[in-house]
Structures are given as C-alpha cells and as structure tokens.
Amino acid sequence: MAVDNETVRRIAFLARLKVEPEKLEDTKSEFNKILAWVEELGEVNTDNVTPLVSVNDEALSLRQDEITAGHISEKILKNAPAQEFGYFVVPKVVE
Amino acid sequence: MNDLTDITIAESLSKLKAKEISPVELTQAYIKKLDENHKYNAYITLTAEKALQDAHEAEKRYANNTNRNLEGIPLGIKDLFCTKDIKTTACSHILDNFIPQYESTVTQNLLDNGALFLGKLNMDEFAMGGSNETSYFGPVVNPWSKETPLVAGGSSGGSAAAVAAKMCAAATATDTGGSIREPSAFCGVTGIKPTYGRCSRYGIVAFASSLDQAGPICKDVTDCALLLNCMAGYDAKDSTSSKREVPDLSAFVGMDIKGLKIGIPAEYRPDGLNKEVASYWDKAAKILEDCGAEIIHINLPHTKYALPTYYVIAPAEASSNLARYDGVRYGLRVDGNGLDEQYINTRTAGFGAEVKRRILIGTYVLSAGYYDAYYLKAQKVRRLIKNDFDEAFKKCDLILTPTSPVEPFAIGDTKMLENPINMYLNDVFTVSVNLAGLPAMSLPIGLSQHGLPLGMQLIGRAFDEGTIFKAAYQLERGANFVRM
Amino acid sequence: MSDYVIETEKGKWEVICGLEIHCQIISKSKIFSGASTEFGDDVNENVSFVDAGMPGMLPTLNQECVHQAIKTGLGLNAVINKYSEFSRKNYFYADLPQGYQITQFQYPIVGEGFIDIDLSDGKTKRIRIERMHIEQDAGKSIHDIDPHKSFIDLNRAGVGLMEIVTKPDFRSPEEAGAFLRKLRSIVRYLGTCDGNMDEGSMRCDVNVSVRPLGTNECRTRCEMKNVNSVKFVMQAIEVEAKRHVDVYENDGEICQETRQFDPVALTTKVMRKKEFAHDYRYFPEPDLPPLILSDDLINQIKKELVELPDAKKARFVHELGLTPYDAMVICENKEVADFFEKAAQGRDAKKVANWLMGDFFAMLKKKNLDIAQSPVSAENLGKLVDLITHDVISGKIAKDVFEIMAETSEDPEKIVEERGLKQVTDTSAIEAIIDAVIASNPENVASYRAGKVNLLGWFVGQVIKQSQGKANPAMVNKLLKEKL
Ligand SMILES: [Mg+2]
Ligand SMILES: [Zn+2]
Question: Which tens digits make up the pLDDT trace of C204-218?
Fold first, then answer.
C-alpha cells in the first residue's frame, strides 16, 4: 500500500505536524520505504491468532474510591506557557 | 586503588561501611571525573551541588548506622525519568524547559535507598534512536572512541557512556527495543532490562507503553543486581506493574550453573553475521559450557518479523503518547493563528526528525482503513513471537545471543543516516525481547579488532532475572573483560 | 408501528431515531485519578498530574466506577461482559490533556439490554440498548471571557462517564422523551448518576433519519450533539425529521453530518461534515491491562441492587392496589416512592396516593420544594389520612389541617387537638344545633315537609356551618331526616 502526497498531508494534519511542501516528496518516499519493509508481516499466517494486547498476564487491579490528589493548582500550572486567573490559556477556539 | 571511581558500587559500599572512605569523598571523585569528561556530552543537567549536600547527609547516616542499601552512592539519571524540581527534557526541544513537580517511582525508590543524583543524562530524543544522535543536545561520544568520535549507542547513550567513563557509579536507563542493552554493549558496561512490569513506569516519559521498561546500567553484574533490587517492585500508580515479589537478586550472583540449559537460536546467526561477533558468541557459549551449563540449539522462527512488528507497534503507541506535547499545559509553545496552527507550529518546531518520522508512521498504521493491515497484524505477529519464546523456554533456561550485530560506528555515519531502516536493523537481537516482555542483560565479552567493546545478551524467562544473574556472573568471570 | 407520522401533500414519512447518552458516574474520585469529582471548586483545583496529562503519568482505574457501571448495566437488563478493554480515542482538543480520551471501544463493560417505556396511550414499548461503556470526561473550555482567548479548566477532566447507546428503536419524539425520563429514573434509583441534564451530568446525542412510511429503507442519518433537556431532545427530533422530509421531497440529498440543535430558533445547523470527520485511531490502551470481572462480584452487586421503578410499580399495583397510572407517577422518582411507602405503611394506600398526588404535590409545587425538603413528613401525611379514616375529622377539615401542617410541620393529631377541630360525633350536641336550625327556618321546614325533599342538602349545610365544620356529615344527615 503505497501512500500518496495527499495521504502524507492528511496524516501530518492528524498528527498536527507540518510537512513543508519541498519536503513532501522525500517524506513520502521514506514513508513508503518503511511501509514496504513492515509489510513483510503480510507473509505471516495469523489466522486464528489472538492479538497480543498485554504481555503481563496479571489482571488489572482497581483503586479504592478515595480522594488522594488535587488542590495543587499551582503545581499544575507551574510549567504553563500561558495562564490567567488560574486557567490555561489558548488562542480562541471557534466551534 | 588509583581512584575511587574505579571501584564498583559493591566495593564502595563495603569501604563506606568500614569507614575507609566517606560519601563526600566518593561523590567528589565522581564530580571530578565528570568535570574532566564534558567532551563525551553524557550529562545535560548537573545537580552536583545537591549531590554533595546529600553526601554530607549520607555521612551522618553512616556515622549513626542508619545507612540504607545505596547510602551515598552517586548515580546518573537518564533524562527520561521525571525528577521533582529538576529539569526533565527527554532530550527534546519540546520539553527543554520542563520542571516536573513529581518524582518518578524508580528514582524515588533509589532516593529512598540513600542514592544521590549527580545529574540528568543525555539520550535519544524521547528514547527514539539507536545511536544517541537524535538528542536535542547533540550526540553522546563513546568514551572508547579512538580518533573518530563514535556513537555511544541509544537511546541510553548518556547512561552507558557516563558509567564507562566513571562519571557516575551507575545510571538509570530505559529499554523499549534495546535502549539499555545496545549502548551497554557499545560502551563496554553491563545493563539489564528486567521483565516488563518489574519496574514502575510511573514518572518515566512514555515512548511505547507496552514495551518501555526501566533498568540499571552498571560497571558489572553484581552492581546490576544491587541496583535493580532497589529500583524494582510493585507500584499501585502503574497498572502494568507486576505484583510478583522481587527476589534478592544479589543472592543469585555467584551461584553455580551446573546443568543450566543455554539455548542458542539458529535464526540469530544468519550467513552474513559479523565474524568477530560470531566468534565471541562461540566463546561465550564455551565459557558457560565450561562452567557446567549445557548448550542447546533452539529455534525462534518468527525472529525475522520482530523488527517490522516493533516498527508498527512502537510508533503507533508513540504517536498517541506524544500527543500530549501540544504547548497548552507545559513545554514549548510556538504561536499560531488559532489553536490548530499553534499545535502544528509547536510540534513541528519541538520534535526532531526521527520523532516526527515515528509519529507519522504511528499515526498512519492506526488510521481508518489501515489499522487491521498494520497494527492488528503486528499485534498478532507479536503473539507468535512471544509463543516462540514460550516454546524455546520449554527446552532451555536461558538464551544466549550477541547484543548487537555491529560494533560502535562513527557519529554521523552516512549509511545509518541515509536510510533509517539501516539504523533500525541494529536492534535485530534486542527487540524480540521487548515484544515478549522478557528480561535480558547485556554484558561485555571482549574487544573487536578495532579495540571496541562487544556485548553478549542473556535472555531469561519472564520474572526469572535470577537465572540471568547466575549465568551472567559466570560469563563475566570467564570473559575477564577489562573495564576502561 | 407508532402513530407518529409526518404527513405532507406528497406523502407519509416515518422517523427513525437512536440515542447516545453520557451519564456522569457518581463517585468520590475520578475514574483514572485520585482527584475529587466535586463541582464548583476553584479553577484547576480538582486536578492531579494524571488529569493534566503530565509526562510519565499513568491511569489507575477506580473500582467504584466499575461497580457503578455494573449496577447500571443490570438496571438496563443488560449483559455484563466479564472481559472488557480500554481503548484510546485520539484527537487534539484544548481541553483533552492527553491528546486522547481513555474509553472502551471493541469490548465494552456492558453489552445488549433493554428498557421498557410507558407511553401516553397506556401502552409500553421495549427500547433495545446496544451497549454501555465507561470512559473519562474532558475538561471545560470557556470561550466568553476574552475575544481572542479560550480558558481551560481541567476540574472535569477525568470524571467518569457511562455512555449508553440505544438501537435506532425510537419512532417518535414522545418515545425518546419517555426513554430519557425512564433512564434518568433508573440511574437515580441506582445512585449511579444524578441525571441532571441541565447541569450536564446527563448529556444526549440524537441520531435521526426518516423513511417513507411502510418501507424498510435505511436512509442517511444526522447526529445532534449535546442536546441538554428532554424537551429539547423531543423538539430536535421533530425539527430534524421535518428537515429531512423537506429535503427529500424537494429532490435533495441528506449528508451524514453532525448538527447542532438551536432551541430558540427551533432549527438545526451543520457543525461538522463527514469529510472533515475525525479519524480517532482507536487502539487498546497499553497503560491498562484488560478488565476481568468475576461472577462473584457481578452476583454480589446483583444481590445488593435496589428495587427498580418497574418492579416497584408492579408491586404497588398488585400489593397496594394502586392504578397503573398512579403507580407509574409515584415510582418515577425514588424519593417520592419511598415517601409514599412510608406514608402508606399500614393504611389505605389508595387514599394516601390520592393525598400525595393531590394536595401534597400541589403544595410542593407552590412552595417550589423537593420532596426531601417537604414540611409535611411521610408519618404526618399518614396520620392525617388516619384521622379522616377514623372519622376524627372530615375531609374538608383535613384540607385545613394539611395547610397548617404545610406551614408549621406539626403533627396533625396535635393540630386537631389543640385547635379543637375534632369532628363532633356527640348526638346531643348535633341535635341541639339541628333544633336551632329548624327553629330559625320555619318556611324551609314547611317546604320540606310539603315534599321539597331536596332541601335536605341545604339543612345539612346549615348544620355543618353552625358546627364550624366539625359535625359528622353522615350523622347530621341521619338525625335531620328523623327530626324533619
Ligand atoms: Mg459516542
Ligand atoms: Zn463518549
């Protein structure tokens, strides 16, 4: 499955990355090289194979419903690039 | 003894306990080495002053006999571990001003054992890379380099180089596809990636959650057991951490290995395998055999597919794990016209080329219409790879392989840079272990004809690090590798 | 088939509608972190490092959220899946700190189920539930503080949600409204969600399509997000269905898209077209192993489940003799049903129901109070009914007594005692009044005796009036007949 320029642009937008127009061809060919390589997996017969989701066979353990965190807004905001009135601030989001 | 930095942690601890040396002296010795060796670019943040303060505290503890397991031992910390109030960057521009307000569980465990931290160590950006050349702070130089500067391996290149050049007594590291073992091999030091779930991932900047695992890089096998015992253990803050008890790993060091079955996988020995690597492999097998182990030939039939599987799963998880670096709550922000543009500008400027490459691949393999062909397929092959190991471990107790098919190469090597897959291929012996969640250690076996270290890998059953320590110690004695 | 048909000059159309409802789980802490779920606290106060998506932070699942989901699943008569998985839904948004939402995708915790709804024509209809999964909520963006900036508060980020998805079984706005009321009633009974749509703790997405009546066509549907009241959901279905009919009858096409309902203009407008639709790249959450539930746990929760509205309603009809309508009204709200049961204990339940649904509800409405704040307690309402039943006061006096109870919260027995409102059943006292009335109205007495027997009512009224309402009407009747 070779990708085209449009796919590279779409994937880049999904990942919120910019591929400069002059780098589009290079990015695409590198992309296709890697994809062709991973497509070797197609050779493997995986009929009736259950996908491996978790290597550890231990069941998920659950946490007690207790309040153990919070009231650290100063620490939460400590590294914020922009903040006002205790909020994180971003450019206006238009719905 | 020429220098306090020459001795291992085990040796240091006995001298400290005997009050032959003081933690302050020890720390000063490492700081001195560290100052002499800035050329290796192993550290990106230094906390030497704090380390010295802590060394004075440690001295009091030795005086009143309240010293803990690693009291006063100066360590280096890979910059992937969040350290409270100490800049943690993952060696990325996008986090180069980030100061965590929390401590990772592994580093907290080390602090609770009395260790002190000399600083944060260089690494590949977000641990993505095999040569430490993707770091925003520039490559680490392998201390074994002759005229040409060589890579230290990646991603824990700073950790391995710092231990090799005695810029710390030991270092923390992480391993997603070989990032502890490959740099350990390249720098002639010893590192273990424990079983997935042994060490908590809480507070470690995530690369690929289902593969990432922390471990120590040390001067020798004995120190690895000491360190890992202090780092590992169940942590309720990481739902993938294991509740299985961690045995006293030091107890395995020195045990005899009579009757232990060592598997040699045929698939790891293609025709084109580097002759030197192959002959050291034979030598290692011989050493273990001489110690009473039995060599068994085994098969891991899906080995060929491990790298492609890894390069679907790891980028997929990474693409999602790195979505949080969006310039909203912390890290770099590059303004743009509207939120989407701000995201794009921030992430495009903040991430380096390799990280962006993997985010794109990972985004693609998860996207609508491609998920089944790539991601789901890779998860199924991952199961087959794990099954291979399960089968093999019915016949043997350990698996012996080289750590890397190559010796350390030059920084800026064009073959590695012109095609990313060439770099990826260096992980051929290490990635399967992460896919199967198994423990594996790399230890130095000897020098190549160029005088560069080569490493051997011992792979164990899940949660059976103990057997690795048993055999590794015997192999270490037999190899008689001379540290830098 | 429903009676709800959109009829135009050109033809008859049927509405097809399905709902997706997000219910906020009642729990002390968030679903994947230990921060409080409390509303109304200061900005970013109920936020942990996990909720803020800080590097290296990991989710840990709240047991209470799982139990609440199981309870709700049982309340929906649904299959509880012993194996379920968490997945990541990846998208960028300012108030989504991790860059993904942890939700469930392929393997939800709750499978198929159903709810029976009561319709105004007295019939019931079964609405099938497709699935229910648990997930985390996003934070809140505030857009109206500054013309150029949005402000992000993460207090709500990470609060647990249950997302209930119905089959497209609704054929009229009324059915959807009845379903939402019933669902709200069930989750409130269970204590798993407070069901307040106006406060956003229950949010509804509405999917609508239409087809020519009598056909089985599947036409394009449109989704309206976050419609936040039962009334608006009903209006949105009506408005959107009419729009579809209008487009089709003018040879237009309906595009699959997300629309927004405007309750003021009573229109829907497009939010997001299909071609700009997200590609969420769902994949299993590697930070959380699969969730495995035991039969023991499910059975334990089943055993402890409260009686749900349908069961309670049936019991009130069969054991307490209420009409199905009265039982339905009383059982919609658990507090009302509990209040009623307490008040009706050991008494004529129908009489109590009449009082409850009549004067009592009217009083609450007038005073704008919840049943929990009622000045008249269940015991006192019961006692009042007793006073009537035992002929201590008349129904008319009872209304006065009730009014005093509503003002003073006093025991009706005390009110009747202290204010001397007891019904006069003493024959001689009543006879004295009758004699006085007869004596002072000779003309009417003559008319009555001449055959104008319907004057009896007038005499009864006079006597009761003279007794200030305290004379027992039956007794007055009997004695008057004798005397006249
Ligand atoms: Mg939905
Ligand atoms: Zn949802």
Answer: 999 999 999 999 999
